Amino acid sequence: MSTEFTLSAGGYTAVVSARAAAIRVLQFEGRDLVVPFPQGGPIPDYRGVIAAPWPNRIADGTYTFDGVEHRVPINEPERATALHGLAFPLDWTLKESDAGALTLTCTVGPTAGYPFVLELSARFTLDEAGLHTSVTARNAGSIAAPYGVCPHPYLVAGSSPLDEWILEFAADSFLEVTPDRLLPVGLAPTEGHLFDFRSPRAIGSTEIDHAFTGITFDGGLARLSVRDPAGTGVGGSGVGMSWDESCQWLQIHTADKPAPIPGRLGLAVEPMTCPPDAFNSGTDLIRLEPGAEHTASWSIYTL
């Protein structure tokens, strides 16, 4: 059974697992803000993990960096892709902790298809404004490394069905993808599309598993809100997420599942430093030189 750590502050409780540095539980006044998962055993649907050194997918598990072709293991065989990086199977190590914060670390690589060495550090801080996470990657190797990161929480607005939740986030474009493999095709405007949530409205039956960009940042932060129209009283009526300008992309997934598997339990909200298959396209891919660092930050809070 994986070690886990509990933080409490300002009406919030967070439980972070050493496995994948995943947020297993996040509650405000007893109300779930993310879809939880049982202690021990596998983490279902990558709930709450840190996805690094790439978010989303690499087509065929193959990419070329600095003229060298690499092949990472395929872990999404139905789409023949490598999904969500290499850090999620790992048990992260506690570096430091106190009543309201903790830092977990792990080392990624060198391994098959990723002959680079990254030292990852995830800092979790809980206060009256919510749960704040920052992930820093340091290239501890001797050659430049490709890098990207994102969190993978499934937000919960309330007890009403997801179709009734009111979603709002400001993004001008979304990435069209192939229907069978969810690999990038090209950008399209959100205006006039079912994916336009620049003004708050119900999700309805819309199925989303797409990346968005052209995101509005106000004071250095982008914000998303999802509210339960029936939610009132203690614990608030929804959940919000903010992130810094290191993440110019946002993956939204309505967690649709084929029957009889329960679906649409939460809304996956994944601020990403780069889009899907960036290891091949190079779009917003971070190049970490030896000794260089990169930090991305985000927060989850009640509304």
Automatic annotation (TrEMBL):
Gene3D superfamilies: 2.70.98.10. The lineage of its organism: Bacteria, Bacillati, Actinomycetota, Actinomycetes, Micrococcales. This is Galactose mutarotase. It comes from the Bacteria. InterPro entries: Aldose_1/G6P_1-epimerase (IPR008183), Gal_mutarotase_sf_dom (IPR011013), GH-type_carb-bd (IPR014718), YihR-like (IPR037480). Pfam families: Aldose_epim. GO terms for biological process: galactose catabolic process via UDP-galactose, Leloir pathway; glucose metabolic process. GO terms for molecular function: aldose 1-epimerase activity; carbohydrate binding. It comes from Paenarthrobacter aurescens. SUPFAM superfamilies: Galactose mutarotase-like. CDD domains: Aldose_epim_Ec_YihR.
